[in-house]
Amino acid sequence: MTAQPHQFHRHPALPWAELRVSRQSPHCYRLHTHMEYSLGIVDAGSAVFQHADGAQPMAAGSVVLIEPGVWHACNPAQVAAWSYRMLYVQADWLHAQLGVAGLRFVQRARHDAATTAAVQRLCQNLLEGDAAAWTQALTALLRQPAIAHLLAAPPALPASDAAVHHALQRLHRQPDATPSVQDLARAEGMSASRFIRHFKAATGVTPGAYRLNLRLNGARRLLAEGAALADAAHAMGFADQAHLQRAFKAHHALTPGRYAQGARP
């Protein structure tokens, strides 16, 4: 039986965290975001990390640190296979542990031995289910001023983004709803073309891409919690299971069914 290149691991002792292990994967990913904080490490091969600050080369031992809501993509360099691990940590749980309203990473790509070793330990501690050691190691890493800025309040949204903020609130409030771009634009007193330009300038993606990413993240959360595929598809506004299957595999390089099997404790 051929080994699956992508596996997800959770442990009952750490329900707020999830580990993705990808081995010799040639898959490429579209720009996307996560609801969680993401800490990743390249185990073999090389990749290109694309995010708001540009494209950065990554090699074995390189670490990526990504806040929730940051659009990004990590893809193998020259379409060659690579191996990596990615930790996902629930934002609300992490904020409570640190006593903050948020955090911002100083650098989203790091290549120093100390950070690499710290993320290696976090991956291993999750597999072992050592919640105390894992939590202590994570908070110690993130309290370092060279790693992250701890925020007493969420980052303020620029006033010029108010129209986009209203649209985002609507999309997040009802991810299963299907307001058209025209509906969103009309609510802000804009033409559809102007609204799309404004939205993309503020977020980096179109309203349609943003909504699909939001729905996929919601479906992923529901599947990890044990929801049936049909229920997750319906709750997140997909036309049917097949629609969710296609979109999920295109974004995550595995089917939602296989993700659910690996994600459950």
From TrEMBL:
**What keywords appear on the UniProt entry?**
Activator, DNA-binding, Transcription, Transcription regulation
Q: Which SUPFAM superfamilies match?
A: Homeodomain-like, Regulatory protein AraC
GO MF annotations, alphabetized = DNA-binding transcription factor activity; sequence-specific DNA binding
Q: Which InterPro entries match?
A: AraC-bd (IPR003313), AraC_XylS_family_regulators (IPR050204), Homeodomain-like_sf (IPR009057), HTH-like (IPR037923), HTH_AraC (IPR018060), HTH_AraC-typ_CS (IPR018062), RmlC-like_jellyroll (IPR014710)
The transmembrane residues are none
Q: Tell me yes or no: is Methyltransferase among this UniProt entry's keywords.
A: no
**Would you say which domain of life the source belongs to?**
Bacteria
Q: Does the keyword Transcription regulation belong to this entry?
A: yes
Q: Which residues form the HTH araC/xylS-type domain?
A: 165-262
* Protein name, UniProt field: AraC family transcriptional regulator
Q: What is the organism lineage in this UniProt record? A: Bacteria, Pseudomonadati, Pseudomonadota, Betaproteobacteria, Burkholderiales
